[in-house]
Every structure is written in structure tokens, then in C-alpha cells.
Amino acid sequence: MTPAFAEPNAPSRPLHVVGADALDSFRESLPEAMRNWLAATGFEGALGDLRLIPAEDGTVGEAVVGFGTARTRRRTRFGIAKVAASLPAGAWHLEGSLGVAEKTEIALGWLLAQYRFDYYRPGAKVPQPALLKCPEGCDAALLTAMAEGEFLTRDLINTPAADLGPAELEATLCDLADRFVADVTVIRGEDLLARNFPMIHAVGRASPRAPRLLDMRWGEKGPLVTLVGKGVCFDTGGLNIKPSSGMSLMKKDMGGAATVMGLALMVMRLNLPLRLRVLIPAVENVISGNALKPKDILTSRKGLTVEVNDTDAEGRLVLADALAYATEEASDLVISMATLTGAARVAVGPDLAPYYSDDARMVTALEGGAQAGFDPVWRMPFHDAYESVIEPGIADLDNAPGFGFAGSVTAALFLRRFVDNPRYMHFDIYGHTPSDAPARPKGGVGQGARALLLALPAMLGL
Question: Whole-model pTM above 0.85?
Fold first, then answer.
């Protein structure tokens, strides 16, 4: 599925966007019949409230949609996008006193609302879409790339684990590399031990679907950005097995990998002047006779020993080896993304992407990108005072300390031990929308990718 705007030269109908505070002046500008129609139907300019206006021949000639108040717009991102499904098919263009940021939010939301996940419903009826012309002042190529990358992320997260294991994740990355002339190398199975990736191997060895490390490189000039995404294609919890309720969404445990792949698509589609590396440790965390056991002690690629106090805290183990490998090469930025802890969800809920960074320039750039990309993030602390919590005494590190507090913080501190680069940023995302929202249907969702895309030029001085 490819998101699309209407052709610039296509005949189109007007969609009037009217805020509640501008409703009186808008009414005064209308022909009497249209003014009476809006009054008779109770239109008050509420966000997303739609009225279809008939033409003289009885067809729909134009439409009016409410833009609400500043407060309602703050509470509901992409509030206009929900009307796309209610408009007749064909091309539409925006009318109204809108700033570029407002038009950008509407246009991006319109594209994101085109997403459908119908692969398992081949008979599902797909309605003809109402397409929006890209509004003046908006960057059509940028918005389309953002939506296309988001669609890839959603598809990957939504696909059941039976159809998306480590091999399928590898195939998807290879397809992406083929599209954009990138190179992929893969280290699989027992070769992980021979090449010194012991923790990736330990987590994935119990599955008949061999664990692997995926490594994609794109671009020949410019600063190097390394993205590391957690690719746990299903997480039973291992021998510390999850209850059934805890496993119900574990097909999304590769949401970090899905998000960095979506971000990579955006970067490559826009041909940004940088070099890109994507590292994905792809595993299944399941149970068999050779599964990783509680209290096992692993020696990581970096040489740090790790006591495994919970086999369900496996994401940080596979990321640790990948991050150590990433920072053996000089990168201008290292960014990890993972559906890592429930503690992050307890702290900020499913709509915010928590992130960690000690680099002020990166933080400032990301906060600006989050606002411009309508992709909310929230900074969390690398709190040094909790370092001792992840030191068990019997080994260098503990993968699941019994501290009882700050689970996302201690996981981030664990990962930071494997990164020899001060320009490091970690995201502890959720990757799932629990209920339908404008432009975000229930299911897989990318978090932080648009913010990062827009922040990269400032982070890198491009």
C-alpha cells in the first residue's frame, strides 16, 4: 500500500476548514442557502464535524469540516483525518485560514488515514479514497515518505509471528535494501557464536527459527547514523514464561526493528546526505531443552558478564551485543529503538515515545522534530544514581534487577554500558495503538521515527 496525494492538476472540490472561533465570520461569507443548511444541521465547528454541501445537480459540491478550538486540537492529533472516510471519492483541496503547520498536520494525517491491514481478509471491501491535494507550503515528498515509512512499520508489527519470524524480518530488510541500492549482511545461527555475538545466540537458540544479526548499509558520503532495533519476533518470556495475557501482544516485540526500518525507508526515500547503518538482532524468545535459564551468566560481546535474573528481560541482551558491535565503528549518532519495558508504558502511556539522551544538541533537535512531525516524545533520565542497581555482585551486570522502581531507567542504563559513543539516544517505545484514533487505527504504530527524521539535519549539522 502506497500513500498518495491527489494529482496537483486534478479537478477538485473544496473542503472548508473552520475553527469554532471563526464560525461567525465564515457564515457571513456564505450564500444564504449554504448558511441556512449549516444552521439547520447544527454545525458549530467542532473538531472533525463534517457537513456535505449539495451542488445544484444534487451531487456533493463541497464540504465543511470543523477545526475545533486550540484546546481540542491539542487533545486530538490529526482530528481532521477522520473525515477522509466520509467524503466522496475523488480529489479535494483545503480552503480556510490555515498556517503551514496546521495544513501539514491535516495533510500528514490524511495520508496516514489511508492505511489498511487487510492481508488476512482478502474479501474485504476497500473503499475508493477521497484524496487530498497537497496544500500549498507543504512538502509533498517529505510527507509521503513519512507515511510510507509508517505503513511499513505498521505492517510489520501487525503481522502475526507465524508469518513474521527472523527469516521474514531478514527478507523484508533485504527487499528494502534492493529498492534503495543498499547492502545487507547476515550472521545466522551458530555463526553468531563463532563471530562473538553470544547474547543474541543465547536468547534465540531455543527456537527452530535461527537467530540472526541483520546489518544494512546505505549511502557513500556524509556522517554515519547507526540505528539499532530490537527484533524479538515473538516473546514468550522464555523459561520465565509470561501468562497468556502477557503474550497476547508479543507479536509486536519487534516494534523497535519495525520502527528503525520505517525510519530507514524515510531517509533513503528522501536521499538524505548521510550514511546509514541499520542493525537488527532478530530472534524468537521461546522454550526448549536448550533455552536460556534464570541465573545463567553470559559473557557479552563487549566482555561484560551478565547475570540473567529474568529470561523475559531478553531484549536488552540482544541489543547489548548489537550496540557493542555498532560502536566498534565510529558513528556520528547511535540510536536504539525497542519495545523494552512495561515500566515505560506505566510512566507515560501508549501515546508518548520515551527517550534517553545526555546530548543537549540531540535533545533540542529531537524536541523540535517531534513538534514539527506531530510525533510526541518525552525525555527520560539516564540517572547515574541507579547504576549500582544493575550491578549484582556475582557478575558485572544484572539484566533484571529486583529494585522495584524505575524499570525503564535501569534498562536504559544497562544498554548504555555497551555504547562507547557519547552521542547515543535510546527509545523505549510501545509500538501499538490500543484503540482507534484519527489516522492511527488500533494496532501497530511507529513512534519517534518522524521526530528523528526531522531532527537528523540539526543533530548532524547538515
Answer: yes
